[in-house]
């Protein structure tokens, strides 16, 4: 398949099951909501080394938040329930409780509930109070700038991690410009995050390594400096490859984000330096969810 001069490989991105949650963070203004959210989602690019993958989903207006203040929603994903619960409580305590004017609320309904402020209330040392509103419990914890307000629990849902596509270009600036165009388009899609710095990965990996202690290692087939040293997937004119990884609540959410991202790159045309779009396919070793590029690019917008 070729779209506007850009080749779309007949392959698929391979993704795996995760558990996910959403938290709404509000503050006196967006600046402080972002301070809290950026701290909470920091060092959360990959479950390989961070425990969770997290990111800011979108901004929220005063009309959309529980306390009528500006805010942001964040999504957080982990390979299992236990890790997700541990990471959520730790990051809430260190990043939201500590941030001036910040408050936190559940951002997703589910029969499965995990702690949001349930244990953080003990920071109040007996001075904390609670209120039950519409069957939801909220905790008011006295802190030095006033009160920390937090909903007791949030929902936990089944999710998918590891949706992805690769951008193959004739130069590093061309690959990065295309990735930035894709991320701008993908950020408009709900229920997904792109957890790596700026949404872009330069160190895509393959499963396994020659070293026994490594679970993953550099994707040598897509490294331009290894064309003469490995079984390369790159033609002579490709000098840079960048990857976009997507985590989402559902399969259709990830597929739609991939579609708009790839389309944004194709809209730049062949003259942009992008020659091909491919994907991380690990031969079924990684996960059960397969995002087929040709099917995604021939599907209608959702």
From TrEMBL:
<keyword id="KW-0963">Cytoplasm</keyword>
<dbReference type="Pfam" id="PF01913">
    <property type="entry name" value="FTR"/>
</dbReference>
<dbReference type="InterPro" id="IPR002770">
    <property type="entry name" value="ForMFR_H4MPT_ForTrfase_C"/>
</dbReference>
<dbReference type="Pfam" id="PF02741">
    <property type="entry name" value="FTR_C"/>
</dbReference>
<comment type="pathway">
    <text>One-carbon metabolism; formaldehyde degradation; formate from formaldehyde (H(4)MPT route): step 4/5.</text>
</comment>
<dbReference type="GO" id="GO:0005737">
    <property type="term" value="C:cytoplasm"/>
</dbReference>
<keyword id="KW-0808">Transferase</keyword>
<keyword id="KW-0554">One-carbon metabolism</keyword>
<dbReference type="GO" id="GO:0006730">
    <property type="term" value="P:one-carbon metabolic process"/>
</dbReference>
<feature type="domain" description="Formylmethanofuran: tetrahydromethanopterin formyltransferase Ftr N-terminal">
    <location>
        <begin position="1"/>
        <end position="143"/>
    </location>
</feature>
<dbReference type="GO" id="GO:0046294">
    <property type="term" value="P:formaldehyde catabolic process"/>
</dbReference>
<keyword id="KW-0012">Acyltransferase</keyword>
<dbReference type="InterPro" id="IPR023447">
    <property type="entry name" value="ForMFR_H4MPT_ForTrfase_fd-like"/>
</dbReference>
<dbReference type="InterPro" id="IPR014053">
    <property type="entry name" value="ForMFR_H4MPT_ForTrfase"/>
</dbReference>
<dbReference type="InterPro" id="IPR022667">
    <property type="entry name" value="ForMFR_H4MPT_ForTrfase_N"/>
</dbReference>
<protein>
    <recommendedName>
        <fullName>Formylmethanofuran--tetrahydromethanopterin formyltransferase</fullName>
        <ecNumber>2.3.1.101</ecNumber>
    </recommendedName>
</protein>
<dbReference type="GO" id="GO:0030270">
    <property type="term" value="F:formylmethanofuran-tetrahydromethanopterin N-formyltransferase activity"/>
</dbReference>
<comment type="subunit">
    <text>Homotetramer.</text>
</comment>
<comment type="similarity">
    <text>Belongs to the FTR family.</text>
</comment>
<feature type="domain" description="Formylmethanofuran: tetrahydromethanopterin formyltransferase Ftr C-terminal">
    <location>
        <begin position="146"/>
        <end position="296"/>
    </location>
</feature>
<comment type="function">
    <text>Catalyzes the transfer of a formyl group from 5-formyl tetrahydromethanopterin (5-formyl-H(4)MPT) to methanofuran (MFR) to produce formylmethanofuran (formyl-MFR) and tetrahydromethanopterin (H(4)MPT).</text>
</comment>
């Amino acid at each position: 398949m070729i779209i506007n001069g850009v080749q779309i490989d007949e392959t698929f991105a391979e993704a795996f099951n995760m558990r996910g949650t959403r938290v709404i963070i509000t503050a006196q203004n967006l600046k402080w909501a972002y301070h809290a959210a950026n701290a909470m989602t920091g060092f959360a690019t990959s479950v390989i080394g961070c425990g969770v993958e997290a990111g800011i989903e979108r901004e929220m207006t005063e009309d959309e938040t529980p306390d009528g203040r500006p805010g942001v929603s964040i999504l957080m994903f982990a390979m299992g329930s236990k890790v997700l619960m541990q990471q959520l409580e730790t990051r809430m305590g260190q990043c939201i409780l500590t941030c001036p004017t910040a408050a936190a609320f559940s951002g997703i309904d589910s029969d499965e509930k995990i702690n949001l402020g349930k244990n953080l209330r003990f920071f109040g040392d007996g001075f904390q109070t609670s209120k039950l509103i519409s069957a939801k419990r909220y905790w008011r914890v006295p802190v030095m700038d006033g009160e920390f307000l937090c909903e007791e629990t949030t929902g936990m849902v089944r999710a998918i991690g590891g949706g992805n596509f690769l951008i193959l270009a004739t130069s590093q600036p061309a690959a990065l410009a295309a990735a930035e165009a894709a991320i701008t388009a993908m950020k408009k899609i709900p229920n997904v995050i792109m957890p790596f710095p700026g949404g872009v990965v330069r160190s895509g990996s393959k499963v396994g390594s020659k070293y026994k202690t490594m679970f993953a290692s550099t994707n040598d087939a897509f490294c331009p400096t290894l064309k003469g040293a490995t079984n390369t997937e790159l033609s002579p004119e490709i000098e840079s490859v960048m990857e976009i990884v997507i985590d989402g609540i559902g399969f259709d959410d990830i597929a739609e984000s991939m579609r708009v991202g790839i389309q944004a790159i194709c809209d730049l045309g062949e003259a942009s330096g992008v020659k091909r779009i491919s994907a991380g396919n690990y031969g079924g070793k990684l996960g059960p969810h397969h995002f087929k590029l040709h099917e995604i690019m021939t599907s209608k917008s959702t």
